[in-house]
Every structure is written in C-alpha cells, then in structure tokens.
C-alpha cells in the first residue's frame, strides 16, 4: 500500500477554501505565524517499529487485521503515516523484534519511501529462543559476568545493525531491578550496569549518541536499577560526552513535574531523547495528549525555551512516539499522537516569551499564567494543517486515511490474521 500524491491533492481540494480563510484570520492575530508554520513543517517524530501492530496487556490482545508481518511492510505503514502527516520520516527499530535480514535492501527500501533510521533500541528484557543465558535476574546489572557479557554483546550487535542502516544513536532501556527487598545489592547492581555500559559506549562510532532511558517500576516492582533521571544522568556523565538521558513521559511516578526535569536536563545539555505517550496511572502508553494535554504543553514550553536558550549546547532531542495501540487502529492512533504533539509544540511556540520573562521578573504571577493560558487556548489546527499542506500532506489526515480506506486495503493485501512483532 502506498498513497499517491494525487489522492491527497484531491482530498485537500474540498477543504482548501475554508482552510485558507482561517489562515488569513489567524495571521492577523499572530505576527510570528510564518515562523511557527515553518518550525512545525520541519518537525518529524520517529515511529517505533513495534507500534504498528495490536498492543495489548497480559490479559489479552485483540488483532484488527492487515498487520505488517515483515519489516518491509512496517516501513510501508510508516510511509502511509508520513504521506498524510509529513511528520514521520523516521523509524526506530527494536532488535531482535525487527532484525533486518538484508540491511542494504532495507535501507534502500526506507530511502525509496523517504524514510531513515532514527535511534536503535536493544532488548535485554526478554529471553530469545537461541540465547545461552537468561535475563530473568537482569542483564547489564547481572551478578553473573556471563550474562552481562551476553547483554553487552547484544548491544554491540545492535549498534552494528544501526551503522549498516545509517542510524546515529542507541537507546538502552533496562528492565533490570528487583521484586523483593534483599534480592539485589543496589550498589553492586549500579556498578555492574555502569561497567557494562562503558563497554557498550566504547563500541559507539564517534558521531553516535547513547540514550539512557529510566523508569521507576515495571517489570520490577521493588527497585529498578535505572529508576530516575538522576541515575540516568549519573551514568551518562560517567560514560562521556556522547551519552545522554532519555525521558519517556510514562516513566514517572504520579504527579511528577516532568517539565521541570526537562528544563533541568537541558540546562546541562543532557536531554538526548524523548518518548511520547500519555497516561492516567503509570506507563499506560496511551495516545499522546489524551489525558494531560496541558502538561504536554508545559513540557513543550520548556523544550522551546531550552532549544532557543542553549548555552550548554543541548542537541535537538531524538523524538519518538512510544505508545501501545490496544483498541484503535495503530495508524490512526499514531496520526492522532502526531497531531497532539504538534498541537502542544505549536501552542508553546505561540507563548510570548518576552512578555513572560517580564512578568516573571516582576513576579506578576497572574500575568504569567495568562500568557501561558492564552497560548494554550488558541486553536492551532489551522497552523498544523498549513504546515502539512506546504509539504504536500493532508489538511485532515484522519479523514483522508478513512476516505482512502487504508485499513481495508491492508486487510485485503495481508489478510485478517497477519501479526506484527513487538510488545
Ligand atoms: C519500556 C519502554 C522502552 C522500551 C519500549 C518497548 O517501558 O518504554 O522504551 O524500549 O517500552
Ligand atoms: Mn520508552
Ligand atoms: Mn515504557
């Protein structure tokens, strides 16, 4: 399945007049509208290769048909999302869920579809069939050096796949930890993890980055070796300049002030990557922006400020959606997530930074709040639509997806029972 340009142009036609009218109205109100449209139209978010099939919980998984059963098909699905949104030109691979059998052919296919490979993800949280040692009691932190060596070798192999595919970064997320007090010596586990990470780091090409993802609980429920941004930051600092912290929105205890963490990491140039999702309780992996859109906006406020005021040279973070699709068609769900991310970003770009600074310097709390909320309450749908339009994307991607009947075309192509690898 591939969407052709003419199909999108035809679907846009009916919406064009109304859209342009709204744009004219908006440009009267906002003098920096062109800059915002430009920023959004250049913004892209990586799609993880494991998010294109049905997700689920340990209690069940419900398929919806037409799932991509090969990496090639996964790339095709991402290119459908990208054709409509023009904001998803990269894929993030999880190894071994998506091992490219022929890296050259996969790279060529991706290039042909206008895609490239963003961060690679290693997996030492599950045992694979042909594996010698088990990760039941951890991987990089394990008490047995054989297990640690095996996990290090896996991460090096993932880097090698990434080199062949043109990726420039590795994300390490560890499930390592303990379920019961007394099970694990915290300090020994930390030192083992650091020593293992040092070996992986030594294998990184000079132009690569290493992202260390943290998570307070799950699958271990008493302790996680890399439980929070402080631990991730300590490890990254000990490794060297190519190592950074990665923030996954779902990896925080309830009510954590994530925007504050983002600001603090950027002050030191240490925010390397970002996993978007939303949650009500824990690592729910719901579509972005469904629960806490204001929080996402406040996070983007810090990201915008951090990217514009950047003495510590924080790199542009590697953006990725990390959600699970249990009820909705994953392609529609990913499109909705992209729209939610760009909505928060556009609203943050609308914040009058100068006025906000003045209010802050005067301790005028009321005005500061009004500045933020004026931006948050602005309808930015037209900005997003115009950004897509300028890249030949769809004015209304979800409607276009449905008009083109994409899911049924995929079901016809791949059948009702095809299964995607992943969570
Ligand atoms: C862990 C996580 C991590 C994994 C992905 C599948 O909860 O967020 O990023 O790689 O989920
Ligand atoms: Mn994640
Ligand atoms: Mn997660």
From TrEMBL:
InterPro entries associated with the record: L-rhamnose_isomerase, Xyl_isomerase-like_sf
Keywords for this protein: Isomerase, Manganese, Metal-binding
UniProt GO MF annotations:
isomerase activity
- Per its record, how is this protein called by name? Sugar isomerase
């Amino acid at each position: 399945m591939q969407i052709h340009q003419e199909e999108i142009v035809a679907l846009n036609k009916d919406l064009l007049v109304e859209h342009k009218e709204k744009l004219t109205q908006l440009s009267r109100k906002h003098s920096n509208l062109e800059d915002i449209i430009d920023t959004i139209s250049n913004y892209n978010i990586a799609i993880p290769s494991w998010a294109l099939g049905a997700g689920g919980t340990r209690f069940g998984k419900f398929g919806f048909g037409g799932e991509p059963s090969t990496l090639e098909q996964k790339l095709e699905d991402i290119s459908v999302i990208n054709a409509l949104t023009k904001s998803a030109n990269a894929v993030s691979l999880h190894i071994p869920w998506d091992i490219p059998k022929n890296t050259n052919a996969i790279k060529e296919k991706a290039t042909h579809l206008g895609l490239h490979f963003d961060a690679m993800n290693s997996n030492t949280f599950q045992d694979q069939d042909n594996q010698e040692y088990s990760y039941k009691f951890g991987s990089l932190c394990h008490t047995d050096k054989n297990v640690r060596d095996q996990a290090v070798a896996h991460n090096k192999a993932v880097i090698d796949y990434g080199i062949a595919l043109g990726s420039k970064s590795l994300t390490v997320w560890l499930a390592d930890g303990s379920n019961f007090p007394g099970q694990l010596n915290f300090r020994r586990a930390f030192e083992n993890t650091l020593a293992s990470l040092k070996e992986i780091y030594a294998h990184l090409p000079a132009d690569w980055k290493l992202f260390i993802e943290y998570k307070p609980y799950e699958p271990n429920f008493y302790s996680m070796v890399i439980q929070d941004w402080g631990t991730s930051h300590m490890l990254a600092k000990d490794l060297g300049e190519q190592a950074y912290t990665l923030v996954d929105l779902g990896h925080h205890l309830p009510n954590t002030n994530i925007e504050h963490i983002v600001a603090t990491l950027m002050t030191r140039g240490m925010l390397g990557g970002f996993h978007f999702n939303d949650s009500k309780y824990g690592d729910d992996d719901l579509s972005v922006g469904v629960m806490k859109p204001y929080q996402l906006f406040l996070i983007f406020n810090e990201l915008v400020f951090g990217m514009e005021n950047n003495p510590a040279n924080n790199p542009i973070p590697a953006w990725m959606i990390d959600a699970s699709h249990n009820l909705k068609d994953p392609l529609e769900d990913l499109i909705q997530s992209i729209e939610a991310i760009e909505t928060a970003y556009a609203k943050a770009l609308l914040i009058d930074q100068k006025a906000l600074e003045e209010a802050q310097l005067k301790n005028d709390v009321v005005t500061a709040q009004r500045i933020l909320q004026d931006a948050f309450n602005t309808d930015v749908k037209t900005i997003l639509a115009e950004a897509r339009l300028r890249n030949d994307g769809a004015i209304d991607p979800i409607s276009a997806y449905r008009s083109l009947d994409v899911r049924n075309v995929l079901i016809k192509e791949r059948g009702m029972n095809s299964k995607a690898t992943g969570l």
